[in-house]
Each structure stands twice: as C-alpha cells, then as structure tokens.
Amino acid sequence: MCISESFPPGFQWATSTESFKVEGGWLEGGKGETIWDRFGHEHQAFENQTVDLACDSYNKVDYDVYLLRGLQVNTYQFSISWARIFPSGHRGSLSEKGALYYDKLINALIESGIQPVVTLYHWDLPQELQDAGGWTNPSIVEAFKDYADFCFSRFGDRVKTWNTFSSPWVVSHAGYGTGEHAPGIKDYVISSYQVTHNMLKSHAEAWHVYNDNYRKTQGGKVGIALNSDWAEPKNPALPEDVAAADRYLQFMLGWFAHPIFVDGDYPAELKTQIELKRNKCPSSEPARLPVFTPSESKRILGTADFFGLNHYTSRLVSNIDGGCTPGPQGVGDFQESVDPSWSSTASDWIFSAPSGLRMLLRYISKQYLNVVSVPIYITGNGMPTEYGGDTFNDTSRIEYMRGYINEALKAILTDGVNVQRFTVQSLMDGFEGKQGYSERFGLHYVDFESPDRPRTPKQSAYFYSQIIEQNEWHLRARAC
C-alpha cells in the first residue's frame, strides 16, 4: 500500500558546515593557530592540502547565506572556531574582529529568516591549548567553560540552540586514539579515555553556565551532538553476536550518552569490559577508564535539552576475542563488517544503510529518553562523492538522502520517535580531515582550483530544496 505523509508542522530542515572545513582566513582578524592549521602545515593531509583558504567563508558571509536562501532551509548549523575568538584559547586574548565575523553571519541568517544553530566545538582546538596537553589536561574544563560563557553572552540574544560538541567520539578516537586526525596523538590506552572524560565535564560546565546565567533571559537550548553508527548483529541467532553489537554501541554512543542521559556514569558494559581486560592483560593494560566522583556524576547527569545525533552508516558486528589490543575492537571484543548490498561511497567507512537510522532512533528513544523526554535533532547526515566524480549530477547522494529522510519519517510517524530536525551535511564541499579536499560532502560544488572559490548547486541541492518546499514525503511502506 502506498501512503503519502508529511513531516510534522514546525519541522526543522537544516544544512551545516564546520569552521575549519570552510572558513579559511586562517590568520585573518587576529585568529590564533588551531590544531588543524598545524596538521595541514605539517603535510598530514591529502596532497599536502591545508585549511588556509578552504572555501573562504570568512570573506563570503553574504554568498553563503544566499545559497541557504536558495535551499529554503529554515535552520543553519555552523561551528565557531575557538581560536578565532580567543586566539590563545583564553579570554585575555579576545579578538573582537573574530567575534564580529560571527555577529555578521548570525545577523545575516536572522535577516533571511534562518535560525542559527551554533556548535561551540567541532574539533578545531587552539594550538596553544594543545601545547598544554589539549583535552588530556583537566585545566581545559575551565577554559572551555569560559569560552562557552563568552559565546552565550555575546551571541545568545540571537542564537537559541547550542551544541557544546559535535561528534566528540571522533576527537577521542581519531584525534587521541588512532592519531588519524589532529592533533595526531596515538594513545588509545590512556589519552583517548581521558579526553572523553574531560569533554564530558566541559560539556556539563557549559550547560550549567547557560542554565544558571542565561536561560531565563535568553530562553534557548543547550545540548550535544553525538555521532553513532547503528550496529546490527552479524548473526542475530547468535547471542554472543547480539551482545557484541550492543558493546559496539556502548563503546561509541553509550560512552558519551550514558553519563549525560542515564546516570552520570559510563555504561556498565563499558566498565565491565575494561575491567575484564585489566585482569586478563596485567602486563599490557589495553585501556584505563577514569572514574567520576559522585559530585561530578551529579553535575553531568541531565545536562542536555535535546539529543543531537550525527549518523552516516551502519555495521554488522560479530563477537571475537580481541586479546590485549588497545582500541574499541580489541577491548570491546567485537569485529565489524558491512553488508555487501549496502552501497559504497567515496569514504571507506560510509556505506548507505538507511534502515539503520530508524533502528538507531528507536534505540536512542528507548535507551536514553525514557526518563527525561527531550527531542532528538538529527544534527548531521550525509555522504561524500569523489573529487572528480559526478561533479553536479550527484545521483548517489540523492538516493542516500532519499533513503535516510524516508527512514526518519518512519521513525516519527510509525514509531512515535520525537525527531524535530534533519540536517543534511553539508552546505558545500570542504576540507575533510586527512582526506583534504578529495572527498566532497557538499550540496554545493566548490571550485578549489579557483582563488575565488565559486560555489555551484548540485542536483542534490535542488532535490533537498524540493523536499523542503513540499514538506511531504511519499512513503512506500505497508500500512501497519
């Protein structure tokens, strides 16, 4: 049976960018060096590419807002570069020119009827803070709190939705675990877990600053955007695979969500597994999980006005003996694979498996939102195409978007999950970490060969605009 349904009234259609991926202007307006500036200058990215100019969004506010108006989105999510406002990471180094850039962007959005959603931290730490240990140094909690306080006071009269962090798991995993991302630390035994510990405490402090000092006058919301795959047991008939799939989710999503939404502490499965490995591997401890004090747990619990979700792909998970190897697979005793039927993308980790989004939304609703009911915002969903592939006719992205938007609608209408926003990543092509500019996530094509960095809408931009305009989706499914 074919039914036609629409998203609920007031549903937020969004697209996004991240500061270091698009802004450029790496030294303009007094901006300080970030870990991604250093990463590029040390030739760590594809073909020695850097973020020096990127998409030059620092100088193209009006152009970018023009593109947003063309898409007809009612919401735009972007991140602030901490070092553009506090070049050293501390308030004493305030750059007024940096703050004015974000004032200009926020004002232009509001004048165009577009709601700004601001992420305080999307991976680009001021290099001076990194030199002091970065997220492994407990003193960063106070520095982040002060940075958040400044942003709330400066922009909060106009910004009503804040993400403290976006995809913090990637910071812990790739920034301090595998070292694939800036700052390139390879220490999954201690640093990775310490980073998560300090980011959770930083998130909580920022939320409390807003709650205590700004909520009454500004009336906004503060939450966090957590990234997670969906994990399906490779053999659902094997209890050990079912348990392994759950461990996969606990090591990725639960690591952050459980302390905030459940009880102020890490998931029991995570703690049990790490303790198991400590006993099994006395001479080569593969993981050391810090402990929250009772007051820290109390401080962290409940510090989210919404559940932000960045989701791109799924995995089939099977049980293995990971031995004494550091990292989630070794410590978690699981192995991941993909279904051969899932369409591949230009990224070696993103495969299109739209039904995973619906399953994950149901899981989150049941696991984390049954006590405190807050809305879910899909804060990031998208896939890359190759640099020289279908430049404008990005049919694979259209099919990906169609599938994932469809599954979000099923979660809302059939499963009763309270999803209030869908964010397509991203507004334009940008710098994608170690891959540089070789992978294109954008709804708009950016010509990185031209110093003017012109943008051109792809077919996916027209497709998304059409969905928004109609706010109607033809859902092919059996009526239950």
Automatic annotation (TrEMBL):
Keyword Calcium in record: no
Sample GO molecular function, one term: hydrolase activity, hydrolyzing O-glycosyl compounds
Coiled coil: none
Database matches in InterPro entries: GH, Glyco_hydro_1
Keyword entries, A-Z: Glycoprotein, Glycosidase, Hydrolase
Entry superkingdom: Eukaryota
Signal peptide: none
GO BP terms: carbohydrate metabolic process
Assembly, per entry: Homodimer.
Family: Belongs to the glycosyl hydrolase 1 family.
Protein name: Lactase
Species in which this protein is naturally found: Amphiprion percula (Orange clownfish)
Lineage: Eukaryota, Metazoa, Chordata, Craniata, Vertebrata
